Every structure is written in structure tokens, then in C-alpha cells.
Amino acid sequence: MSGLKDLMTSVYAEMSATDDVNAMVDKYFAVDFVEHDTIPGIEAEGRELARVMFGMMKGGMPDIRVEVDMMVEEGNKVAAFGAFVGTFTGEMMGMAGQGQQVRMPFADLLEWRDGQLVAHWGVSDMSALFVPTP
Fold it and tell me: What is the value of pTM for the model shown?
């Protein structure tokens, strides 16, 4: 694996394992990080949006893990395709979990600079929260 793919794998692994979202964001997200997606109901921007989003995901699925199906590196960018997988026991995006297993597919494009993320474009299939994994 290349350096940026290794870093990306570390971000996903730490997101899955950590109980300290703030430390993970501080480690991997540049102070001037830009989130190019709009997250309904979340007013935060940049690095603060990452804190809110990861905190919400960990709160909704405390056992969340990231399964990466493919990563492609081009210059200072990494594209990753996979799914967030876990047990939906908390609340996420205004929805309460019922203990169901979910697999929420995602596609991420992440830009790196000096070992930190500086930008993110992506999409996640939040409708997966309604459809339990068999």
C-alpha cells in the first residue's frame, strides 16, 4: 500500500476503534479542513463538522467499523469505497436505532497535505439505517 492509502486505512481504523473522536480528528484533520458535502441538520463546518459527524456515528453505532472494498490513489487524493457497518443502538440523523445490524455504503474522496486531511467529498447511503443487514 502507498503512504496515503496507509494513512487512510489508519483513519478508518481509528474511527472504528476510538472512544476519543476529538483526538482522532485533531490527529488527522487539518485546521483548515474543508467538508464539501452538506449534512442535513448539522450547522458546523470544516473540522468541527467532522467531530460532530463522527461523534454522531459512534453514538448511533458504538461498535461501528469501516469495511473498505477499494481504494485508489491519485496524486494527493485517495478515493475509498466501502461501508460503515455496526449495530444501530443509539440515535443518528434524528432516527433511533432498534438494535439492528446495518451496512451503510459510502464513497469518499479525500485530499491530503502533510499527513493530514484537507478536504472531503463523499456520499453515504443513510437509507441503510432503515434496512437491517440480514
Answer: 0.88
